[in-house]
Amino acid sequence: MATSSDDDDIAVDESFDEDWDTFITRPADNPHSSKNSYLRIAIVIAKVLSYILFFHAVLGSAIGSKMALIILASNTMHHGNDTAMHDGNTTVRLCTNLTCMNGSALTTTVSPSVNNVLQETTNDAGKAERAKYMLMLMGTILVPEVMTVLRNIVRIMFSKMKGPSWGVLWKVCLIEALSTSGVCLFVLRVLPRSNFIFSLLLMNGVCFVPAILKIHTTIVRKDLKSGRREIMLFLDVMSWLMQTSALCLVPAQPFGYSGPTWEVTLSLFLISFRWWETYSGADIVFPFFFEVPLYKLKVGLSEVRCKTYIYAGIINIVIIALVTFLILASSDDITLNNIFEPVKLEWDEDNYFVQISLLFFVQLVTSSTCFFFSRLSCMTCIHRVGFALPLCLATPATLAMFIIDCQWSNVFRFNSLNIWKCDVNLKQSWREIIIGIALWWLSQLWISSHIWFRSSQRFAQTNKLFVRPMYCGGLVEQCLMLNRKSKDENEARTGSNVTKIVTDVVATPVNSVIYLCATMWHETEEEMVQILKSICRMDLDQASQTGVPDTQRDNYRCETHILFDDAMDLRDDGKLVVNDFVRQLCQLVPTAANAVRDRDDQVTILDPTLTPTPYGGQLVWRMPGGHKMVAHLKDKMRIRHRKRWSQVMYMYHLLGWSLKQQWTSRINAETDPSVKLRLETLYKLRCDNTYILALDGDVDFQPSAVQLLVDLMRRNPQVGAACGRIHPIGSGPLIWYQMFEYAIGHWFQKTAEHVLGCVLCSPGCFSLFRATAIMDDNVMHKYTTKPTEAKHFVQYDQGEDRWLCTLMLQQGWRVEYSAASDAFTYAPEGFKEFFNQRRRWGPSTMANVMDLLLDGRRTAKVNSSISYIYIIYQMAMMISSVLGPATVCMMIAGALTYAFKWDNVTAMAVSIAPPIGFIILCFIVKPDTQINVAAIMSAMYSCVMMAVVVGIAGQITVEGPLSPVALFTFLMCGLFLIAAVIHPQEFWNIACGALYLLCVPSGYLLLIIYSLCNMNIVSWGTREVKKKGGTKKAAGGPQPKTAKERFMQLFKGGEDDDSGYLCGCGNLFK
């Protein structure tokens, strides 16, 4: 080992590498975290199947939505069950569905009086049906608007959102009103009067305004080369001219449109305003100082979109209802009274009203499905196959299906359903089809061409993917394509030089910097190997970035810092030397580095460089992949030990000095304002993209798990911390208990907190923290507070990770959870170690939650992710935790009543007697004795829980499967089973639920009593190692010999190393 100083305060008297030994020992991979070959093959197959599924789901649902809408619209003008048509004085043609349009009908001869009555009755029935079809068409437009309003209302209930200014509100509402009026006019007036060819092709002519804005964006862009700019501008202008032809509608009549031309022109023009925000890359400035501030409106709307679209959605709903009312009121055929007339609702093959009504639900389901899978495709970065390609093929595919069914009616059997009849002469329509495809469809593809090249972050939020939060019911395909955010939306800004400088810096890609910070103390060899292998995997992954562009993967630079508590031993000669745990770490680094490599890719790890430091010492390794690993050896005589102070140490070193102080001094030394502004922006970007990965000394993880946490950070800049799914590993019954406990905790509690508000605790064993959040006011500085009161010892030192998250939440940051980011850590296998661990966790959890609840009003104001409803939810969870012991006692009393036929008073007295006795015992005996008694009582309670299970089963048998007890039992079991099914890799954790059920009294009664009665103990409680030379008790005097003396010793004050704070009256209040 190389030494950079001759200082003799730290000595290492042996070598850690034997050059003559060419053989190695490869530690076995963790079977829980390593992926076998079958799992890798399954993942590849799942990816291929997902491509196929997404493509067909989006294409099929888009086709279904368009076909259902067109068929439904055609029936509003021509359909009626058994509609009678008068033909002469005595002949009546009875038309079934649309058969009269093709000349086929049933002809019968009746008297004139019967003919008149029959004609009047059947026409009224047909009008009533067509009026309800009109309401269904209105529903296709109305349902997405209602869903938008409800979605935003739910969001503001669980998050704090800004409200819009009057200037933004009235402008957005005006644009929304115009576009919604155009959609209503198009769906309710144009589509019913068009044949299917004209309807399909005309849906592609709604890009008039986007085409103009795209031309303007191309003109003002500064990053385009001269040749490329002219080509793009030419294509933009040609696309605008093609879209203008749809408004002019020169070939209107040959296409089969029977209504007035102005309806088509007005509806298409108004609809095109719907996507102004997607293509407004800069404000439009005209001569004579006339300006259209679209981009300013876009920026202002982005911050208040949620509440703005509540108001706009309500206005849209009113407009849809009003336009429908006006159309019905002005119709000569259908009146408002026809809406309330009854229709036949029984299902039979002759009742076509029910069959066509199903199209309404088909249209709603297929539209929602198309939007869902399109959004999911963009979130998972398969947008080319799962989003762009199927949507571009939707129009020709739908047209082909209609044409095929017209030509060969037995292929899709639309005609056989009697809900649609082909009324187009295909031999005379090829010219119109070619013109419509060439003009409108191709121009729409060019205008929306950004959907092919727009790359997004993995699992990006919907507002990062789409401009509007929901689809448009009448134009699903066009809405998704034109609503997709453009890649160039931030590249064409205008304004001052300050804005341009900031924009240029923001547009520059910034790679992430990840500091892997692990805290170690007394880890075993197996535990050390586990985390060292994880670090070496990160080193390999970082090395694999060489030559890979940023567009293909998210590159990062990582660095490891290991904080070793109590790393020094004092020799007899008075010199400090590293202890056995540090020596063990140095020996295991080469072993772990080669364990993650192939046999043909073994490497030699150089000895670390040892440097004495004011806090102890420092070991530095240079890993083969360029990774730097530093072990900080802390001497507890020079610096505070324990985990929180180790975290303070590396946060201040990496963020306070290496990041903040270095950048601040550089910025302050700069005199040029533009350069200074650029440096300040770069500093903010560097802070936002610098992360600390907090680790325990025994955690096992993959680089992909870290990348998933980084994805959460990148998708939302307000996320200050992110945690993954923690899996306990080990062996024994307690591990089985914790496997089920961790599973349901992550399946239900973490997920509920993530959805309803944000996660309250990001565990310190595997969590990613954003540098900006840690360096924020009232976070890092307050985290260094020394405990001076009793509650400080519980809140600050017993649950440091939860307290850090509480500080972030109170400062306005969000904490999120990723179920796909797996990490494995060793859990306590012994009863004593388990109880001591939970003795720290329980009170600290309650202390931090109470701190958050007492400060709930202020936190809800500053944190947009925490609402008053979420505060009430956490209050209910706190109350349920407090009532947990009483609930267990009542459950046991009920079991005793059923099993032994005792009365309620006796059963309740017997159920509460053991807990009361255990409480008294906890005040007068030592902690070790308390744990031993708790272990014995846990075994006894397990037998009682068996009686509880038998009692519940007997009660269900007596009262039946529909009794409250049976329904509650089935519901709980069903919830656990469903959660296990949707987590297939963790499915067998549910088998440990039987053991968990037997240990409910131990975990929710005895453990809580033990934790509350021993809050004065502030030692860690796990990985305790006896010091050399024996304990203080052995050197303090004679030990008790007789049984009586040993018994009386339980009630006397004793001394334990680092056992906590004692205060009077022997051990009574210990």
From TrEMBL:
* Membrane topology summary: Multi-pass membrane protein
Cellular component annotations (GO), alphabetically ordered: plasma membrane
Q: Which UniProt keywords apply?
A: Cell membrane, Coiled coil, Glycoprotein, Glycosyltransferase, Membrane, Transferase, Transmembrane, Transmembrane helix
Tell whether Flavoprotein is among the UniProt keywords: no
* Catalytic activity field: [(1->4)-N-acetyl-beta-D-glucosaminyl](n) + UDP-N-acetyl-alpha-D-glucosamine = [(1->4)-N-acetyl-beta-D-glucosaminyl](n+1) + UDP + H(+)
List the InterPro entries.
Answer: Chitin_synth, Nucleotide-diphossugar_trans
TM region positions = 133-154, 166-188, 194-213, 233-256, 276-297, 309-329, 352-373, 385-404, 433-453, 867-900, 906-925, 932-956, 962-982, 994-1012
| Protein origin, superkingdom | Eukaryota
Q: Where in the cell is it found?
A: Cell membrane
Name the Gene Ontology biological process terms. Answer: chitin biosynthetic process
List the Pfam families hit by this protein, alphabetically: Chitin_synth_2 (PF03142)
Documented EC number(s): 2.4.1.16
For the keyword Glycoprotein, the answer is yes
Please name the SUPFAM superfamilies in this protein's record. Nucleotide-diphospho-sugar transferases
Q: Which GO terms describe its molecular function?
A: chitin synthase activity
What family is it from? Answer: Belongs to the chitin synthase family. Class IV subfamily.
This chain's protein is named: chitin synthase
